[in-house]
Amino acid sequence: MKRTIKKQIWLNREEAQQLQKKAKKACLTEAALIRQLLSGYEPREAPCSGQAIL
Predict the structure, then answer these.
(1) Rounded to a whole number, what is the largest CA-CA distance in the chain?
(2) Is this structure's pTM higher than 0.85?
(3) For 5-44, what is each residue's pLDDT tens digit?
(4) Degrees, nearest 5: CA angle 50-52-54
(5) Rounded CA gap, 38 and 5, in Å?
């Protein structure tokens, strides 16, 4: 589905850091994380392609 609506939001420093950290842990972009949260799905941490699996 093509996205045609742009939304801009204001975050404080702490909120921005939380969003960045959670997106990184889930190996998602911040936008992808927000879309998943809006659809009711809460992603879990995932190993990113650059991380070694122990």
Answers:
(1) 42
(2) no
(3) 999 999 999 999 999 999 999 999 999 999 999 999 877 7
(4) 160
(5) 15
Three-state SS annotation for the chain? CCCCCCCCCCCCHHHHHHHHHHHHHCCCCHHHHHHHHHCCCCCCCCCCCCCCCC
CA distance 40 to 46: 18
Judge whether residue 52 has pLDDT over 60. Answer: no
Distance CA 24, CA 18 (A): 10
With tokens 């997106």, the residue in question is 23
CA 26, CA 23: separation in Å to the nearest integer? 5
Asked if 24 and 43 count as a contact pair (C-beta separation under 8 A), the reply is no
